[in-house]
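User: Okay, second chain of the day. Same drill as before: sequence in, C-alpha cells out.
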Amino acid sequence: MFKNKISFGIILYLIGCFISIFSSVFVKKVMVDYKLPAWEVIAIRQSIIVAILIPFMIKMKFNFFDKKTLKPNLIRNILYAFSIGLLHISLFKIPVNNGVVLQFLTPIIASLLAIFILKEENSLFLWISLIICLCGVFVIQQPSFGDNNILFAYILLFVSILLKSFITILNRKLALNFPTHILIFYMHTIILLVSLCFCFEFVKFPKEVVFILGIVGVFYLLEYVFVYISYKYCKVTITQPLEFSKIIYSIILSNLVLGENVNYIQILGISIIIFGFLFMIFSKRIKNK
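Assistant: Same drill. C-alpha cells below.
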C-alpha cells in the first residue's frame, strides 16, 4: 500500500494528531475554568517543557548559539508563537464551531503551498480527498455566521491559519536538514521567550493548574517528537490530509472522557472523513502499481 518509511511516518503523524487533541482539551478547560490569559498559559507550559529539555541538551553538548541552526529555527518559531497566540485570542471571541471548521482550511492551504514552494507533486486525488474530508468537517460542525461574530477576531484567525500553513512548509524543510531534538529545543525555547514578552497580567497560577500544564507540556513535547520525525519520511501533501483525523479524535475523546453523546450527524461526518482517507490510500495504491 505505502512504502515502509512512508507508512511509519503516517502512523507517527496520526499519533501526533491524537496527542494534540488530547492536550488541547486540558488547556482549554484550564483557561476557561480559571479565566487565565492565553500568553500566561503558554509561558507556564513552555517553561516546564524547556526545564525538561535543557539537561538533555547539555548532556549532548549542544551549541546553543550555532548561527546555522539558530537563524532558520528563530524565524520558524517566532511565526509559530504568533500563530498560537492569535488562535487563542480569536477563539475567545468567535463561536467555537466556526473556529474549529475554519482551522481545517490549513491542510488545504499548506498542500497548495507545498506544490508551489516545495515542488511536491500535484494530484487530483489529493484535492478530492481533501475536499471530501473538509465536507465531513462541515457536516459535523456547521459554522453559523450570525450577529455574535466579530470581524477582527476572524481576521486574527485567518492570519493564524496562513501562518500555520506556511510553518508546515518550514517544518518539512527543517526536518530534512536538522536532527529532531534540535528542532524541538529551539521551538519550545523561542516560544517561551516570545510568550514572556506578552505576559502583562502575571496571574498567580494555582498549584493544580501548574500540575495540569506540566502534564500537558510533556504530552505536547511528545507530539512534536512524532510530528517532526514523520516529516522526515512524508511529504506535506501526504501528512496534511491526516490533519482531518483530529476531528475524529475530538469526538471520540469528548464521548469517552467528558461523557458527551455522539449523534447521527457526527457519525455521518466521521464516515465521510474516513471515506476521504480511504480514497487517498486507494489512489496511492493505484499510482504505485
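Residues 4-122+148-235 form one domain.

User: Thanks, on to the next one.
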